[in-house]
Amino acid sequence: MGTTVEDQRLDALFTALGDRTRRDIVARLSAGEATVKELAERYAMTMQAVSQHIQVLERSGLISRGRHRQTRPCRLEPAALEVAVSWIEESRRTWSERMDRLETHLTRLQENP
User: Fold this and answer.
1) Of the candidates 42, 37, 15, 49, which has an alpha carbon nearest to the alpha carbon of residue 27?
2) HEC string of the chain?
């Protein structure tokens, strides 16, 4: 079974969201654009460490960097989350169907011992 582009995107998204700091940065950017400096003020880590988190988020497609005068503000790209939301919803639907079939099977077993 080969890796599809969608699989690679999911891997990148879940890797990016697998870290608490990166999830916090995503949550912060949901309120509006911010520079790396503004984002770094919230954390007890170096600017370089925050920049590395931002690079992971950028590679995953969750955020993008614009240009405004001398700064490059970060902005959330909410459409990137749709890949993860679709996968989660499809997985939920699959497991729900499986649980329904199991429940039906167990009910039959109880009715016909």
Assistant:
1) 42
2) CCCCHHHHHHHHHHHHHCCHHHHHHHHHHCCCCECHHHHHCCCCCCHHHHHHHHHHHHHHCCEEECCECCECCEEECHHHHHHHHHHHHHHHHHHHHHHHHHHHHHHHHHHCC
Q: Please give the pLDDT value at position 84.
A: 86
Q: Please state, in angstroms and rounded to a whole number, the distance separating the CA atoms of residues 106 and 41.
A: 56
Question: pLDDT value at position 57?
Answer: 96
- Where the chain has pLDDT below 50, the residues are none
Residues 32-41: pLDDT tens digits? 999 999 999 9
Global pTM reads 0.75
Cβ atoms of residues 16 and 53 within 8 Å:
no
Backbone angles phi, psi at 67, to 5 degrees: -130, 125
CA torsion angle 52 56 61 65 (round to 10):
0
